[in-house]
Amino acid sequence: MWGGLEGVLRGRREIDRKLLDEIEALLIGGDLGVEATGAVIAALQKRVAEGHIKEPELLLPLLKEILKEQLSGAEGTLALREDGELTVFLILGVNGSGKTTTIAKLAQRFKQLGKGKIIFAAADTFRAAAIEQLEVWAERVGAELVKHRPGADPGAVAFDAVDHALSSGGEVVLIDTAGRLQTKFNLMEELKKIDRVVQKRLGRELDERLLVLDATTGQNAISQAKKFNEAVPLTGLILTKLDSTAKGGAVFPIFRELGIPIKLIGVGERAEDLHEFDREEFVEALF
Ligand SMILES: Nc1nc2c(ncn2[C@@H]2O[C@H](COP(=O)(O)OP(=O)(O)OP(=O)(O)O)[C@@H](O)[C@H]2O)c(=O)[nH]1
Ligand SMILES: [Mg+2]
Fold first, then answer.
1. Which pTM was predicted?
2. Band of pLDDT at residue 285, cut at 50, 70 and 90
């Protein structure tokens, strides 16, 4: 989709309405949605007019520049507390978006930063084998696991994990949650409950509520971000599977509408495959 732009520009003699329409169609196809696309095209037209630009091939660098500007402020860093203090992260998302893998990646990163005890809360008590999956990761990256039986109350698991961390000098708690569709009312209510219960034990807000978005999802990611953000105010996004797709255009409308920063990106299945989000690199990679 994004790579198609060069093809659209090749062999063109002038910048006319037809060419702009084709670029517009490409951006919409690239998951920018109508509004963000409109803003980008308007900015492009303005710059073409102001700069008296005539050559179509100059549109590509201009477009990249505008897209990078659209993500100005979208780069975020994780709210990690001082060493010796407890940081608590709640990890959310639809089924299969990469939540559990991302928890392992985060733990790996925190270990490298010199964090002490890291605790995983196996609050996905719903999907068969979810607890075992997290257990395998915990062993691999050197984290402790707090778990209950399958089917147990996820809020109780999260509570116990935070309780354990507070009483044993844990420095990071990562709460894994079951995948859920953003349209399922009861499941979204359950998230609110987990969040409330943890806050109660902690005596304050959680440090991060991170939504894990599969970059290959496209436009649906916008609805996911909105609905999850309504249930528990999100502090950041993690965009996964960017290794397997040139998609990810949905971050433009998401950031435009919700202003939620993108804290990290996932680029593979291994614990090391987590990177900072860099808007310049991201836009370059889209093309
Ligand atoms: N290529 C690639 N695969 C990923 C990435 N992140 C996760 N995966 C894969 O996506 C699949 C689902 O990952 P999980 O971490 O189990 O996802 P989840 O959100 O916990 O899934 P549920 O708990 O079932 O909702 C696994 O096969 C992961 O290896 C990534 O950044 N790149
Ligand atoms: Mg999972």
1. 0.95
2. confident
